[in-house]
Amino acid sequence: MLDLPGRPMLGVGTLNVSPRAKELVMEALNNNRLSYGPMVQQFERDFARLHGCRFGVMSNSGTSALHIALQAMKELHGWQDGDEVIVPTVTFVATANVVLHNRMVPVLVDVEPVHYQLDPEKLEAKITPRTRCIIPVHLFGQPADMAPILAIARRHNLKIIEDSCETMFARYEGQPVGSFGDIACFSTYIAHLLVTGVGGLNTTKDPEYALRLRSLMNHGRDSIYISIDDDDSKSSDEMRTIIARRFKFVSVGHSFRVTELEGALGLAQLEEYPSVLAARQSNAGSLTRKLRFLDPYLQLPSVRPSSEHAFMMYPIVLRGEKKDELVNFLEANSVETRDMLPLTNQPVYHRLLGWQEDDYPVAKWINHNGFYIGCHQDLMEADLDYMAELFEGYFRRRPLQSRDGAELILTLGQDCSTLEHTLDEVPSDLFEKILAVDTGGTPEALAYLKERGIETYPANGKEAFHLVLDGAIPIECENLVFFRADGRHNPRDIGRLLLALERGSDMVTASRFLPGGARHDRAQGIHFRSIGNRVFTLLANVAFYGNLSDAVSSFRAIKRKRLSEVKVAGRGHAAQYQLSIQALKLGWKVAELPTVEIVNPELNDRKEIVLSAFPVLMALIKEWASYGKGADGSTRNSLHR
What CATH class is the domain 404-639? Predict the structure, then answer.
């Protein structure tokens, strides 16, 4: 699993040139028009409109867009060389470089430790009489915290340039990025949300800014003549004026133009952006669900309240250690990684500006511990599973303070093919022994288990954990995982539960009711959640001061010594429910991981659910009645920790 020679690299970005894109590119070529024309103009208008602005100006890169945005402001507002521009400590070098290229001084503000963007609480302390502008960066696909930044800018009469090169279409408090500041800057470079090969855009609501931006992009030319179309349908007097001025240059500008081909690619991708955005957000959500069990080690991306996230990439920061070993492991196994845009540790800035990494602790932590991987729209669920398995494999191979060994106890279903699939998918190398509990398996299934050398024990009407408690199943290891091999759950989740158990939990439950968990009706394709399960879980939480999301799941991992503390009667849902309640009463450290259960809407299933309601209720009443004395005989007060 962890070293597959020849496996294609799972990159941080993607390019998929659609038939529509090829059609528009060929239309541009057939029009025999490559210079700035109708394709680029339409792309500018549509992009600006989607980001809440009147004007769009397309250039050859996001860096170029940043450069001319600052230069336009400097010229129009009379700023001086040496004036200051505030930038965050975590961003691509272009954000700081364009300040230096404009002969101004970048001033650093450290970033938030959760969303990695300019920290408004640290901003005002960096403002001086020479501060002219703030460049908040919408990083990794998420908007910066603009409300307090804008309030501070207004108080100090400062301009705002939004560096939105990594974020498109996302909204902050209902308003799209690019519409908050005076000028915004975007990028359509390779691996970005929209890809035109090379390309950048400015958006603005101010016509004077728009004119100056377009002039600076075209060598600083007089704005009366920017495109070869600007002399179409003009009167004789207008033509004389144009001819007199069209080779006049009012600024020291640049050649930052693009061709109609980039405009054609942009227009085609703009038609597809809702599906691209939805796929990235879905992939990011899937990665978060698959990696959440590693929360003690990894800080996964989170979405700011009242904000959206476009997920240009998927940033991860190791909480307590440097990233080098992990990123090398991922790269060796065909998963591309990138640094999270370090700025404060760059040699050039240390030499020119005297920046010291130790002065910016959050950025230092991100520089040393943070990286990102891809979550783009061309990654399939199998790719995401593979990445999650790599992370699990990496942390599993790390030495534990103690490893007590593990045993897997399977409960058989009726279908031998399901059993075979389960055993093919089970990470058997993690277990010293695999055992099976027979609840009526077919002779074919029992023969298959015997062939695999797996011992089988009769259920005798009891739950698998009952057999362990009764000594009917000989157990030698401390870590136990209970799994029903009936096709309802994914065997790949077994390793995740075991790892969480090994890392310090007393019990780990596979929950269908956490974000990312679900119950799916296989026959009808209808998603539903079990109301009864949720109600009884809520009652257990209220009665016994708990915080479970799924109290009747049978897919669990439990420490053997903890299991020996409980006394559980009954069977089925009632037994699982009673086990959860006693775990709450005894103050176990319980973890839950999301899982998806596939349910067949068969009559027996529905009958089991109905018939289990009364036993589950009786289990709740029984445990509540004995709450004055815990399952270990201790008093009720001693159970509140």
Answer: alpha beta
